Amino acid sequence: FLRPKRDFICWYLCVTHSLMYTYTAFSKSVGLPGFYTFTAMGLLDDIIIDYYDSKSQKKVPKQDCMNKALPQPYWVEGTKARQAKQKWFKRNIKIMMARMKQNSSDIHVLQWRHGCEAEKQPGNSSLQFTRGIDMYSYDGKDFISFDATNKVWVASSVVAEQTKRKWDNEELIHYTISYLQNNCIQWLSAFVKCRKKQLVQAAPPKVLMFAKNSKVKKNVVLTCLATGFLPKYIELKIKNEGRVLNGADRVVSTGPLPNGDDTFQRRDDIEIFRDDLATYTCEVSHSESNLHINSTWGKFDLIGWVSGGLLMLAVLMLAVLVLLVFLCKRRNCVFINIVFSRQQDSSEDVL
Question: Where do the Ig-like domain residues begin and end (predicted)?
């Protein structure tokens, strides 16, 4: 499943957390390493926190805080639940193939994704439900999904209408809503608190500010890079004399991107004139890490790349001069005289 896009404004104004579970079942073995007939995983803010596959048939923690905070019975019962889901998927993928009139020679895939999203309330750590997700897909196409607002299942194809008629009953709808708005949020809150303790011991995020040459010679690009933060929502602002700049001012943001260690990074750039004398600052806030930085690009940052290049050129010219002097001493300045005479001849030609 593709994760539905969040509003861009949320990167700046709210702290959002999510707890999602994904299940994937194949009709038969794919025959590729790392692919199993059934896998299931839980994700907290898009980071895997638990995992199960048909080979190991065991639900295991993927984060230290999950392993330490949750007792062994949790994982035992979780394993039983995943094993039951594995059987459910095996049975239902056969039903889907029969309903679609498909043969067993091809590989088919049934997926389920469900969970909840919540926003952290200002002034406290409580989470308020904002959205629930419960959706199925078959062979990469949407099959059926739950509309929590209208309290109905929405069929994405004619074949799914039969499932919709079965699931559009009061008991199942009440259970689905209760899970998404209550049980899921309770687990989300518990997992966020668990991770919070882990973050206290982790290295704090880093903020790097620098300038580099633009493709346009008269311009430079200012960059503010925040990296190593978790969860992925962070507040990053580039300001000009205190005024927050945005896309209309040609600010380009990558948004949160994953690092290789389960943390995230974000990079914002703005291109300005090289001779711009205004004060540019970068303000970064990440509440989960208690990070707040408000720093200014200095003049060295703006011209450092240029002056560095001139310095290297000066050093190179000095080295050449020293070499010429050395050769002069060894060759009685014949080489130097030739160089000077050629320079004089050249200047006369120009005049």
Answer: 205-294
For residues 90 and 25, state if they share a domain: yes
CATH of the domain at 239: 2.60.40.10
Cα 280 to Cα 240: distance, rounded to the nearest angstrom = 5
The identity of residue 91, as a single letter, is R
Sheet with 109-120: list strands edge to edge: 60-61, 47-53, 38-44, 16-26, 109-120, 127-138, 141-147, 152-155
Range of 278's domain? 206-297
Per-residue pLDDT tens digits for 167-191: 999 999 999 999 999 999 999 999 9
pTM of structure: 0.70
Using alpha carbons, list the distances in angstroms from residue 48 to 63, 147, 175. Answer: 8, 26, 26
Q: What share of the chain is helix, strand, coil (3-state, %, to 5)?
A: 40, 35, 30
Residue count of the chain: 351
